[in-house]
Amino acid sequence: EMLFFIILILTVTIFNILFKETRWNWNKINLDSISFPKSFIWGTATASHQVEGNCNNNWSEFEKGFKNNGEPNIKDSQFSGLACDHWERYKSDIELIKSLGVKHYRFSLEWSKIEPELGVYNEEALKHYSDVIDELLKNKIEPVITLHHFSHPIWFDKLGAFEKEKNILHLVSFSKKVFSHFSDRVKYWCTINEPGVVAIQGYFTGMFPPGESNGQKAGEVYKNLLESHVQIYTALKKLPNGSSVKIGIVKNINQFDPWSRYNIFDWLFTFAMNHIFNWAPINFFKTGKLKFRVPGLIWNTHINKDAIKSLDFFGLNYYSHNHIRFNPFSKDYSDLMYKKNDIMTDMPYTIYAEGIYRAIKLVSKLNLPIIITENGVADKNDSIRSDYIKKYLFAVSKSIEDGYNVIGYYYWSLMDNFEWAFGYDMRFGLFEVDFKTQERTLKKGANAYIDIIKSQTDE
Ligand code: BGC
Strand 104-108 and strand 439-442: pairing? Predict the structure, then answer.
């Protein structure tokens, strides 16, 4: 027994030494001392279901439903509905984008509008996105398209969506179709947005459609989403313009640290979470082997060597840092904990700008150009946004100074929008949206972003 304890204490101590939780002394940091190359790409982002309005897809269906415990799927039974009416207002919204001084706009195509029935394409919807692209280019803003950002057609769901590997071909066909329409004008393409979130929130925590709770299925869906990326990449590269455009995946890195650094279970669960969310998928792109290994939760292996060369850039989304406390009695086997002195955002996570640096370091293993495809803060009172932007961009600047290949940053989001299971309560926008009048107003905190862009791009 004595020996067991000694080994335990030694292990925990070694973990503590090897995996120190990075903390910078912000009091000593000068947030103005940042420097970005002139070629650095400044941008902002949205997603179709969150801003366009009038969507009829897996999410709009989910919004009508309830969880097993009787609670509505979306906070206070909110519906995405008209959202920001971006579909109709895209011209004036592009004016707003322009006023920020950014050069890239990342948005997603609403698959359910373009292909409302399997194999039936809606010319009007294709024309709409074509007009959006032209309007952006006219304003000297580079369009960046996401092919799948959480939402998809109801017919795709009925076929079993990403639960079945054979359904991937439908997303590949859709991707080829839109690529053949837009690749003459669109140089940057993102395939799948946050495969880990789609799989785990949809099939494990149940926060996203279809609201299930089945670890093994989550693993299967996760695998099929990563595999979708590889198949889309391979298919698009063979089409005209394929070799000249840049195609990447968008993967979020969730930073996990143990709640108690002296509790072996907290450590082990933290490793499991990092493994599922971050390490296993990155390893897939490095080696062509996807291995999920958490006994009793997720266990599968998938090999596709094409994964190794399936990225022209890595789209990194970074938002959250969580401390994990193992709890065998909780539904997800763990509790998310928060350190007293950390500043909370309106979302269930804190500000931790060191985390974006750590995330950049982690994905740099792939030796690819990195675009921060999303980073931003839900801050209803707009009281921490300015500080958030300065801190996170300080961390990005530092990463570039230290040699990491970060080539761009898109702030999430252009404007307040439908924040999935949280509905309209979470306010991520640079522009505030009054959802009654659709009026947009620049937030004070957004000036931090505008000023940084100005200072880094002006001669
Ligand atoms: C998603 C966005 C979302 C944002 C803020 C990311 O997970 O890609 O659609 O709004 O995080 O939660």
Answer: unpaired
